[in-house]
């Protein structure tokens, strides 16, 4: 089975793009005061908890000065400690279409960007997510891009992954007749909509529409 690898853009996806004044704009003097998208850090931590830090990447198009400011901004907000993200998994490029080459080399399977133009180049990526798009840009490139999923915020993006994880759990635990194994030790309960549990570290059974978890990792 192909390893899922997640690629994420910065501007407009991790960093909020509110078109604010020069005082709070990332391109102004107070760029460190720029806000993160609501739920971005929590969502990235969940993705890392599930897929592993080695399989979650940032791929961003920007010039040298903006690269420096981006790294400063991420450090200023304690992004790495908050999410578990690996700093060596950050990749920059100078042209939007070059993101596709980076993703191909990294074998990215899922990519999140706020520009449909970028996603239109992602021929090697299985799943692409258009995040809080600009409608004018989306209309401009809609014919150039094949299948893509529009999500308007991190809550919607994570709901897509949550749905996939619930299907994965059912498929891993269930059988063709819909039954579930009943020989697993129960230690505590986890609601089926909570998804930040690494598959390889957890065993489940199905009881009263809730997943019951045995965490095999030492505390």
Keyword list:
219 residues; alpha/beta; Rossmann fold; 2 domains; 32% helix; globular
Account of the 3D structure:
It is a single chain. The chain has helices spanning 40-51, 64-76, 79-83, 98-106, 116-120, 135-141, 154-173, and strands at 6-8, 56-61, 90-93, 110-113, 127-131, 149-151, 188-190, 202-207, 210-215. It is an alpha/beta fold. Strands 3-2-1-4-5-6 form a 6-stranded parallel sheet. Strands 7-9-8 form a 3-stranded antiparallel sheet, with no helix packed on it.
Q: Could you give a quick summary of the protein structure above?
A:
The protein has 219 residues and is an alpha/beta fold. It contains seven helices and nine strands; from the N terminus they run E-H-E-H-H-E-H-E-H-E-H-E-H-E-E-E. It has two domains: 6-160, HAD superfamily/HAD-like (Rossmann fold); 176-215, no CATH class.
